Amino acid sequence: MVIKKIVILFSGTGSNLEKLLENLHHKTFEHCTIEVATTICNRPHAEGIEKSRHYGIEPLILDHTLFEKREDFDKALVEAIHKSGAELTVLAGFMRFLTPCFTQNIKAINLHPSLLPLFKGGKAIEESFHSPLKTAGISVHYVSEELDGGDIIAQKSFEKTEGMSFEDFESKIHILEHELLPETIKNLLNRK
Ligand code: GAR
Q1: Ligand 1 near 112 CB (within 6 A)
Q2: CB of 92 sitting under 6 A from ligand 1
Q3: Which atom of ligand 1 lies at the shortest distance from residue 173's CA?
Q4: Beta carbon of 74 within 6 Å of any ligand 1 atom
Q5: CB of 124 sitting under 6 A from ligand 1
Q6: What is the three-state SS of the chain?
């Protein structure tokens, strides 16, 4: 059976990281077995670190504050990813702007909490909640030079209900993310 390796990058809570480890790590599908080669975190105290350890993967911590230039951090990231032998890198709540040093060398996908191209950037959930639009959702897209601008691979949407609280809205987003991201990666990799 072909083994397909992925790397997961995260910065915070790591609920998506956890779902990926639970649903994909060492799981065998029709055409491949998926292995999470490593996980990488840019914040030394992120909650997700313990979640990764729970699945037996000691995350590589690359603290971005210790790098003088953005490119230096990205260079270290690229080196670690190449070393892992992964064919796909997954940004699961990885909160960094990436330079061409990364985007030109790494095949990566990103999870974003809005129906792109709407609400790019770091305030997507708030902006989409407060917008007059009745439909909201999430996207998985390829990482390109443009922030949240690469080709869209998959999306899921839902209707904002009358009187929906921000907490309910956010939690609906996370529920959909936890389904869509593992499913999308499986569909990308589980091919002949
Ligand atoms: C997720 O909602 C993800 O869509 C978002 O960060 C959260 C991470 O949650 N990513 C972005 O906003 C990227 N621009 P998690 O740490 O619990 O997986």
Answers
A1: yes
A2: yes
A3: 2
A4: no
A5: yes
A6: CCEEEEEEEECCCCHHHHHHHHHHCCEECCCCEEEEEEEEECCCCCCHHHHHHHCCCCCEECCHHHCCCHHHHHHHHHHHHHHHCCCEEEECCCCCCCCHHHHCCCCEEEEECCCCCCCCCCCHHHHHHHCCCCEEEEEEEECCCCCCCCCEEEEEEEECCCCCCHHHHHHHHHHHHHHHHHHHHHHHHCCC
| CATH architecture of residue range(s) 3-115+139-156+178-189 | 3-Layer(aba) Sandwich (3.40)
Q: Out of 112, 130, 141, 178, pick the active-site residue.
A: 112
pLDDT at 170 over 90: yes
**pLDDT (tens digit per residue) in 81-139:** 999 999 999 999 999 999 999 999 999 999 999 999 999 999 999 999 999 999 999 99
Total-model pTM: 0.97
